Amino acid sequence: MAHPDHLDAGRLRWPRGSLQRQRPDAVHLHALLKAETQPIRILGISAFYHDSAAALVEDGRITAAVQEERFTRKKHDPGFPRHAIEYCLRQTGVGLDAVDHVVFYDKPFLKFERLLETYLAFAPRGLRSFSMAMPVWLREKLFQKSLLKGELKRYAADYDWNRRLLFAEHHQSHAASAFFASPFQEAVVLTMDGVGEWATTSVGFGCGNHLEMRREIHFPHSLGLLYSAFTYYTGFKVNSGEYKVMGLAPYGEPRYAKLILDRLIDLKSDGSFTNSSAAPRAAPTNYSLRVTWIWLLPSRL
User: Which pTM does this prediction carry?
Assistant: First the structure.
């Protein structure tokens, strides 16, 4: 189980599993590229949450990438990206047996750990959500490796899945997609989203074919979840309407900026932050209730 300080102040911290001030297991996505005569191909897969997609990378160059919704015509399609994978392989002209590694974008067990600890920390609140979420996790999401292997075997039945099917941490996936496809040999990579397994904000350092995650802020302290709360508060759908709020923002005035910093976010001198202790620590809908209380105005939903 995770350490209790996951639910403490959202200061920048070292990623779990790191030694004192040095993470020993840097990500090596394209090791020994120059020494190989054959190209290194990696198929990345995102699925089972929202906007499922696949991307094929060859020697650090994106050769094909597409979202599943482009084929199924289902907005934000969360299903297994079968059509997207087939497109990437067809576009590149290779079979799955010519792909060195298949990589899933996060680690389900760590995410499940966060869910359990959060539910336990706030029990009996959240019982309804817990009773809805657990059957899906116990039936499907905890066994995603088997599910992925079953789906992918149709493309290469004899693929060495135990060695070549990998799972990256959520923020590693974000950072890798930005750095390895960039023109930079070295870069600091900042990732901020709702939440991955535990991380909500992270800083990594990329150099050549290496990517090392240096610091993290953990759930429940999250700018992404707060942004989703405002998305919900203004009447848009979470994990869908955030881009609309972003597009509307330049037309407004920052009249509530001070109120947000006073009541919802504690911004530290080093750039790290914590969400207000009075703000709910779970769903954006609960955050929206907090926003509603501050403004003394009902949300649009």
Answer: 0.75
